[in-house]
Inverse folding.
């Protein structure tokens, strides 16, 4: 049973409790110029596994809105807050790109990361369609960091830290399929929501799914994420790499023996020639 | 043979050992020896450690806009104990009292009760000290400070005195020592507020002013913003009189500047307040009545507001010991006060002061002894009521509400016409300004014991005062005679009155679940 989180962006008030919970539970530092909460400039970073970003969105005015008191509504901007963290793809690009097996998708849903395995190649950063993995550029021995969906809390039967602290229940933790059904129901029955569940199909589906009353494109969501799982782009030829490697090994070994043999023959001939020469001289 | 370089590390990695290492690594990672996955090195408060999907009762925290003028939060000190959300939602009924999604702001009335409940001091007032220190160090600036009624009975707590110790004289001495050019008393403008507010009340009751009854007090900026957010239909009930702080601010830039021959542009008007919402009040765009009068709208009534806590911090920063200072008197302009002005800082105090003067204005007689100890409106109850018989008029019914959570029953009765009061006092903080969001931190949450001690200290100022009626304050009489003219007169209206803004379109008020639909 794969778990997931349904995020209802209409409920977020921007308090940033989730970002504090994430820092506390994962013992991540607060860095002054990289605010995690409350701001237009909050960005994911190696110490910010989740952030709340603020967006000002031009407000759509209903046609029936004829109250003179609210006539200036047309020019107003509304505020929306967006929680960002790893989407925990069903088929993650980072996992397929990692030859050191530092990234692994667990059965429970989280995409977890083993820093001890990491060789620091940063292929995962290129492979991720959501630009989630971050590199510890400031450290002497850097590794990759990202949200791991509090996999050990989930293993204990608890919710991820950020979900448990949310005062307005923006997030719901549960079985991903149930949450998707719930999201579909919500979007169908409540006309406030846009007809799009972000994460349902993006990158082949993600464990975290979002519903919103504001178009996702206006909230900084990547809209060019392919619907195919990222590993599927390379899986056909990546699967042939072992055979390819073996064939190369055979060819190179053959070449080695060929050149070795050639050298041996050459040396032998040379030695014989020298012998012949010297015997002629002594005569 | 060359001697081996001592600095070169002695690493012997033969081809064989390299292959061994690589092989071991490959085998280890294949069979699952991965070390530990990242995450989970920290901790969470125990309320979040329960299993299952039910959210903890007390959780999260209040949202605070980074540009909030009143309160600010240091995220690294926050432990998600949930206390700020508790006080904001249950005592002040701001958080959770609006529907989601938000519209275009984070609703906050600035009361600052969260700063008193926050156990780690993560939430504090928004800093004004650095700006104040700059002003004090600028020789071209004439820095005038006013002190609210409640700061004098709480400041001592920051220096080891028991709750309720009155340090009025030593507070003045400290402010002088800190370099303020003039120290004035907000108690004076509390008297001024009563003159304006009581006159307005009498005009409303007698029908001379076309404005609804009951009249609401308007000296608490937290309450004013609350009314603007949640009860915009009742804004006409709010007295148009400004708060004592903003009245004195306007007087400092006009009357005081004229008397002392100082260019108002060079005056920095500072207020020491028990309140965080006063920072927001001072920043309201319309609080430049003195500037409009002078002809320079950029001149503000109040330039800077610091809390009692910030004053204590500044005194300690300068190495002063409050207890060793010799008590000093306020400067002798705009500082004389009556006992009625002094009790502005307690819940029911504004009401008691107002009814004394309203009684005298309506009946033309001296108020009876009862009005100098109006027990029904004293004490820490969230809602108090009293009925007074005024000669030549009849009954006047008053109510006193402290804590925004207690307003709903009263305001709904006003809305549906079942509340027949004439005058209602509202204070955002339980106990009134003496327990305001800018006061020294005490036990968590603030205890009624401390509140009562501070309240008694203010009542004893009133008891000991020789003048106990605002309109008997000789300086008030002088100011009206020499400068302002009549209470609610033209100049008084220009400088001492304000208007309110319907702010309800910035949130969607939550409808009560148990409320019966009026159409049914």
């Amino acid at each position: 049973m794969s778990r997931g989180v349904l995020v209802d962006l209409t409920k977020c008030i921007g308090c940033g409790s989730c970002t504090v919970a994430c820092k506390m539970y994962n013992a991540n530092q607060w860095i002054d110029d990289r605010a995690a909460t409350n701001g237009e400039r909050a960005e994911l970073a190696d110490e910010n596994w989740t952030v709340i970003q603020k967006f000002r969105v031009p407000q759509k005015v209903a046609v029936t809105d004829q109250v003179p008191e609210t006539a200036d509504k047309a020019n107003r901007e509304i505020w929306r807050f967006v929680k960002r963290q790893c989407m925990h793809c069903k088929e993650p690009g980072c996992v397929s790109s990692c030859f050191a097996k530092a990234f692994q998708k667990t059965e429970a849903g989280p995409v977890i990361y083993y820093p001890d395995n990491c060789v620091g190649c940063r292929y995962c950063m290129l492979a991720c369609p959501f630009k989630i993995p971050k590199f510890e550029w400031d450290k002497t021995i850097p590794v990759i960091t990202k949200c791991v969906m509090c996999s050990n809390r989930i293993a204990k039967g608890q919710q991820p830290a950020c979900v448990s602290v949310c005062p307005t229940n923006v997030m719901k933790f549960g079985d991903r399929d149930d949450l998707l059904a719930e999201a579909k129901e919500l979007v169908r029955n409540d006309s406030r929501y846009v007809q799009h569940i972000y994460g349902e199909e993006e990158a082949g589906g993600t464990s975290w799914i979002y519903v919103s009353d504001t178009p996702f494109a206006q909230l900084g969501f990547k809209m060019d994420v392919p619907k195919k799982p990222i590993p599927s782009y390379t899986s056909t030829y990546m699967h042939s790499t072992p055979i390819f490697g073996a064939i190369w090994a055979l060819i190179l070994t053959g070449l080695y023996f060929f050149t070795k043999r050639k050298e041996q023959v050459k040396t032998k001939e040379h030695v014989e020639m020298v012998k012949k020469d010297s015997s002629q001289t002594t005569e | 043979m060359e001697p081996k370089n001592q600095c070169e590390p002695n690493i012997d990695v033969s081809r064989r050992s390299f292959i061994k290492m690589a092989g071991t690594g490959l085998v280890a990672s294949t069979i699952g020896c991965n070390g530990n996955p990242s995450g989970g090195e920290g901790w969470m408060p125990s309320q979040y450690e329960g299993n299952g999907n039910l959210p903890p009762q007390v959780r999260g925290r209040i949202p605070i806009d980074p540009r909030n003028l009143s309160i600010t939060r240091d995220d690294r000190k926050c432990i998600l104990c949930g206390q700020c959300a508790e006080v904001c939602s249950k005592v002040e009924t701001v958080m959770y009292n609006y529907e989601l999604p938000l519209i275009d702001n984070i609703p906050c009335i600035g009361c600052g009760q969260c700063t008193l409940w926050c156990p780690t001091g993560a939430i504090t007032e928004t800093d004004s000290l650095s700006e104040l220190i700059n002003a004090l160090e600028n020789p071209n600036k004439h820095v005038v400070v006013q002190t609210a009624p409640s700061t004098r009975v709480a400041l001592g707590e920051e220096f080891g005195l028991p709750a309720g110790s009155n340090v009025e004289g030593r507070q003045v001495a400290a402010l002088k020592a800190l370099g303020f050019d003039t120290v004035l008393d907000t108690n004076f403008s509390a008297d001024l507020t009563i003159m304006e507010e009581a006159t307005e009340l009498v005009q409303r009751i007698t029908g001379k002013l076309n404005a609804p009854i009951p009249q609401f007090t308007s000296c608490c900026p937290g309450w004013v913003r609350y009314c603007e957010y949640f009860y915009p239909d009742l804004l006409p009930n709010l007295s148009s009189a400004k708060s004592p702080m903003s009245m004195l601010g306007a007087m400092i830039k006009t009357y005081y500047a004229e008397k002392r021959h100082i260019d108002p542009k060079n005056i920095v008007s500072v207020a020491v307040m028990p309140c965080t919402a006063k920072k927001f009040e001072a920043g309201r765009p319309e609080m430049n009545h003195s500037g409009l009068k002078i002809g320079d709208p950029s001149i503000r009534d109040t330039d800077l507001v610091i809390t009692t806590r910030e004053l204590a911090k500044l005194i300690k920063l300068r190495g002063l010991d409050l207890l060793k200072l010799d008590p000093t008197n306020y400067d002798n302009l705009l500082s004389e006060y009556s006992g009625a002005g002094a009790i502005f800082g307690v819940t029911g105090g504004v009401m008691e002061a107002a009814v004394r003067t309203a009684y005298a204005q309506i009946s033309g007689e001296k108020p009876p002894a009862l009005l100098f100890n109006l027990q029904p409106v004293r004490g820490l109850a969230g809602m108090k009521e009293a009925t007074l018989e005024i000669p030549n008029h009849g009954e006047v019914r008053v109510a006193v509400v402290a804590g925004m959570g207690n307003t709903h029953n009263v305001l709904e009765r006003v809305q549906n016409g079942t509340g027949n009061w004439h005058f209602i006092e509202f204070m955002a903080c339980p106990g009134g300004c003496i327990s305001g969001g800018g006061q020294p931190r005490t036990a968590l949450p603030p205890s009624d014991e401390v509140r009562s001690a501070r309240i008694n200290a203010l009542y004893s100022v009133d008891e000991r005062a020789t003048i106990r009626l605002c309109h008997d304050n000789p300086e008030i009489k002088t100011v009206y005679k020499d400068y302002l003219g009549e209470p609610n007169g033209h100049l008084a209206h220009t400088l001492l009155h304000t208007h309110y803004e319907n702010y309800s379109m910035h949130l969607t008020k939550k409808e009560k679940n148990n409320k019966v639909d009026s159409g049914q």
